[in-house]
Amino acid sequence: MSDKDIDEHSGVDTTGHEWDGIKELNNPLPRWWVIVFYITIIWSVVYWVLMPSWPGITGYLKGTRNHSERENVTVQMAALDAERAESTQRLIAAPSLEAIESDPALHQFAMAAGASLFGDNCATCHGAGGQGFKGYPNLNDDAWLWGGSLDQIKHTITVGRRSLHPETTNTLMMAYGRDGLLTRDQINDLVDYVSFISGQAEETEAATRAAPLFASQCASCHGADGTGDQIQGAPNLTDAIWLFGGDRATLYETLWNGRAGVMPAWDERLSEEEIIALSVYVHSLGGGE
Amino acid sequence: MDKAAGTNASGGVERINVEPINSPENRTLYKAREAIYPKRVSGKYRRLKWVIMVLTLGVYYILPWVRWERGANEPDQAILVDFAGSRFYFFAIEIWPDELYYVTGLLILAALGLFLATALFGRIWCGYTCPQTVWTDLYIAVERMIEGDRNKRMKLDKAPWSTDKIMKKVSKHTIWILIGMATGGAWIFYFHDAPTIAAQFFKGQAPFTAYFYCALLTMTTYIFAGSMREQVCTYMCPWPRIQAALTDEDTLQVTYKKDRGEPRGPHKKGDSWDGRGDCVSCRACVAACPMGIDIREGAQLECINCALCIDACDDIMAKVDRPLSLIGYDTDANMARREAGEKPKFNYIRPRILVYSVMLVLVASVMSWTLFSRATVNLNVIRDRTPPFVKLSDGSVRNAYTVKIVNRDNVERTFLLDVKGPPEMVVSAAGDNFEENNHQVVVLDDSVRSIRLFVTLPPEALDKASLPISVTARDIATGEEALNPTTFITGGR
């Protein structure tokens, strides 16, 4: 294109491209746009020099600012820890966990820390509000397998239950049916008996028949009156709360297959102050003893 | 005077060689901006504009340094937008983020005030107080001080580069950038304690955002007032479009009184004024216009009503010994009245004025009432949703509530929590020695306290699916109360 092809209507040069008599005008880009475009090119060169940019065989070009997001996160986390240091120190230094609960400021700190820890670590099994699921205890109610005092909750979180921790407790509900310890009929009688002592059914002949069986087979853990034993983690069979279910089918299943729910130990995953905060949080959910 | 560019059109008054570059016939849609070189004027409106410039800029620059005593734990800056502490301070008023509706109310008030002022006096906001106008005016004053008035500036821009030109341009842009920096600098003082952030700023210890916003406002001031100027008003601002709906034929606007001015034409000294208008076609009004228009073409979108053409014209009218105010504040209705031989009058009692006034008074009253009767205690009771209710071992049911007591006062206060519900209900709280304190809760000054409250109902009281209960927090010293009704979910039946 040596000759300029000026459009007669607008007085603007055309690109020479024509479609069915319609010509494309050759309006220049706005100057500010072109300037910004060149600035971005210059900026990209500056960015290569300053920031990590080119990948290499064994690593990458780090840039003069030696920028690293990973290190920044570490620094920010350390700064956050330093900011919280005073409160976390007070958590550890508190004479007892009860003392934390009766100090309003410290209690709120523990609750806030506990809530986020609970969401990250505990909610998967116990539910977002600690409401529990079948086999995973509800932490809001007042029935505790292993005790609901602040220190007992802290111990449970630290060593877990039936976990790999050496100090954990490994007692379990045996598989009476599957292992041939009791017959089908005996188990059916015991289901009647447990339904009776938990107030769900009238006393039946079968229940009366099962009373001595309960005393010999079950009372060592669940107690002679069936109210359970927190040392062995044996649930109270006379209250309204069931971990797996209190209906006949579930009771039969429990007796036949046994139960051995596991809670992992958290002492390696969480720090001392985190476990303290979590204990206070769980205790304050409502069920704490 | 304008000897170089002007042609002598008549005895005494010179005709200035100037084209209104933004008038409709001169402005095509696709055209680069042509520079406007507004000519210096003097007169009463120019003086008024200087006074308003000093006032508005003074308020903007000085206000963050004004102190206001609020007590030991509170900042003492009169106006402070404290993002870190999530508070907004305005003299005696302190609002929390949840009270942002006060700001909404303030904006509505400002809008109504603007509507009313515009309906009465046209674009006085644009002409006198808009930051774009004020800073552009300041930038033009600096430009004029360094490069001289209209003709000298035009000549300088056309001249080839020389030491003198470089010196002038460099010093002008330096002062412009310094003004821009003062603007951006003052801006950040509204968001931090001014003396502290000022010291930090110069030591290089201020937060990144402070430097960022300072740089941003420096840049916008420099670009908007330095090079974009009238384009901001014409192309970027929505207000010129809206104002057409707010003004009517009785609105006072900067007007060329064509009934008096036409037919226009050059006038020689000693000529008769019979059979002709007062306009001598000197174009002083066009030369003075910072928007590059000709006011004699009537009301235009571009006109910001800055009134500089009034001063320019009055100057000429005094010279040719005609009455002043050929261009002046006037209404379209008056122009029609004069043409019909009636007496002009300013009709300020109009339906839209009444509506705006009533609305303004109404909103202002509601605002002041809510502000003066603002509660210093708030209570939020949030019922747990996971789980909605908890069955206890004896068959009773418990609901948990997060109770937030908001103490907006600057003193520590003790509140008594009173829960009303079925008589069988048992109330307790997590930790805090709630029972021993007889349900009393201490809330620190200017803060929120959360309590986990438990309400338990025995099995015999659970005959409905849900029951209404209510929580009241009462200040035991002042008796001020906040009530929050909620429900109890029994989980059955």
CATH architecture of the domain at 377-489 in chain B: Sandwich
Q: Determine the strand fraction of chain A and express it as a percent band.
A: under 5%
The arrangement of helices and strands of chain A along the chain is EEHHHHHHHHHH
Tally of helical segments of chain B: 15
Look at the helices and sheets of chain A and give the structural class.
mainly alpha
CATH superfamily of the largest domain in chain A: Cytochrome c-like domain
CATH class of the largest domain in chain A: Mainly Alpha
In the CATH scheme, what's the topology name of the domain at 377-489 in chain B? Answer: Immunoglobulin-like
Mean pLDDT of chain A: 91
Within the CATH hierarchy, at the fold level, what is the topology of the largest domain in chain A? Cytochrome Bc1 Complex, Chain D, domain 2
What's the gyration radius of chain A in Å? 35 Å
Major sheet of chain A: 2 strands, antiparallel
Task: Give the strand line-up of the largest sheet of chain A.
Answer: 1-2
Q: Report the oligomer.
A: heterodimer
